Amino acid sequence: MIDVTASEGGEHRVPPKIVVRDLVKTRRTASGAVTTALDGVSFDVRLGEFLCLLGPSGCGKTSILNVLAGLDEPTSGEVLVDGRPIEGPGPERAVLFQEPALFPWLSVAGNVSLALKLAGTPSAERASRTRIWLANVGLSSFSDAQPHELSAGMRQRAQLARALASDPDVLLGDEPFGALDAQARELLQDEVQRVWLDRGGRKTFVFATHNVREAALLADRVLVMSAAPGRFVEEVRITAPRPRRLDDVLVARVVSEAHELLMHEVGRATRADPDLPVAEVSS
Amino acid sequence: MSATVRETSGVTTRRIAHEIGPPLAGIGGLIAVWAAIAAVTTTEGVPSPLETWDAFVAGMADGTIPEATVKTLIRLVFSFVLAVVFGSMLGVGLAVNEFARRSIRPLVVALQIVPFVAWIPIAVIWFGATERAVVFVTIVGSFPSMTLATMSAMRQVPPTLKRAGRTLGADGWALYREVIVPAAVPGFLAGLQQAWGFAWKALMAAELIIAAAGAVGLGHLLGQESGDVPGLVAVVAVIAVIGVLVDYLVFNRVDRRVRRRRGLLIED
């Protein structure tokens, strides 16, 4: 297992935004057996960093995000945001779910403004921020539509606007574009990259994905995870300039490198043979 | 301009025909079969549709049917409102509190299973042959379905919606107010519709059996041993028509509106 914490280096003067130490997550299956989703993972996320957790399905990426979101409690280990333990979910850590999870009784605008309403934002400001965010994701003309009237890609854009309208510090993405067609996915990825860039290093994004290209396109740093129980097997820093495109040379190189590694892990997951040696860590 | 108007009204006419055509055909068929049966039976037990209609007209003319209908509806609305308020509040309580759910839910299910007619003798012993006994039977007959529907509607809210609500800052009561209760509305409406059916049946049974001195109601009209068969059938028809109309014009309509808004209704 590789060390991807920042404690050893002197280069990080600013304390990390998120600190995860020895995070273990076990869960009981319906049959009563206990399975280990995460077997002691540790990592840091810098303020303003875009981190991708890349791994085969079932590797525990979602478990990490659920703990960061405050939706699940760690079995053991420590998870700090701004140096404080997480106490439940909150609008300062917004989540993009794979399934858009829009509220079907609210209009698109009603969905986008809900967090502001809950935070007690005055209605004039609520309306103007909702308008701005709907425009940002290209849904201005769908403000009064009901979620079911939108396409899958538009629903994810609405979810993005809903997550960001309350100006969260951290955006957690749980494979948010995994179920979209290629075209809609690329649009959303551009959207996310732009939003992150617009906030000039103040917003911390952590996305889980099994899509190598997505990770290479979006992330400053990719943590490649092993098949269950999840551990980190590789850390890839991506310094390609932004905004990136999928056909950038650097992005393409990262894709091909990480792809090999990931295929190996996917193979391990399918064979379900945990004793196989993990991939060589190349640097 | 006039062409547009004519076209619009044509569309409206077609829509109305589409809406009420099939039910009218059903009623027409029923009356035809009924008329045929009445024609071949010789006993006086089966009045023809025409005799029944005459009895209905007579009942309307002498005021017995209108008066009974109004009295019955007042009783019904009073009992139904109480049953809905009490039933849904209990349902919310059972949804929110696990101990309450595990201790009280079986009792409510038991109440739901016991036929409401079984309460009539007990109600008479407790309250005498009074209005109160009738109202009691109607409430006991209808609130359990309201309670169980409210409880399951709130407990079957998709976990993803609750999780999304929590990450947006909805905790404690705000989660109920903004997510769980709105998400439960379709299930709640289904409970309302079901409770309405139970209340109507329970009230008719109670009115029929509990003959308070001087009491007036549709069920009471059925309880008079007058031997006037066409009159009895006319009252049964009135009971059926009121029940169906309220179900269609109130509950079905609201239910369809809510489900259409949420994309839960596939138009054919």
Explain what the structure shows.
The complex is a heterodimer of chains A (283) and B (268). Chain A is of the alpha/beta class. Chain A is built from 8 helices and 10 strands. Chain A has helices at 61-69, 108-112, 114-118, 123-136, 152-165, 182-198, 212-218, 249-271, and strands at residues 18-28, 34-45, 50-54, 76-81, 84-85, 93-96, 170-174, 204-209, 221-225, 232-237. In chain A, a hairpin with a 5-residue loop joins strand 1 and strand 2. In chain A, helix 4 crosses helix 5, helix 5 runs parallel beside helix 6 (182-198) and helix 7 packs antiparallel against helix 8 (249-271). Chain B has one domain: MetI-like fold (Orthogonal Bundle), CATH 1.10.3720.10. Chain B has helices at 2-40, 49-61, 64-96, 98-113, 119-127, 131-155, 159-167, 173-209, 218-223, 229-261. Chain B is flat. The mean pLDDT of chain B is 87. Chain A binds chain B through residues 69-71, 88-91, 93-95, 97, 99, 101-106, 114-115, 117-119, 146-149, 162-163, 166, and chain B through 160-161, 163-171, 174, 178-179, 182-183, 185, 261-264.
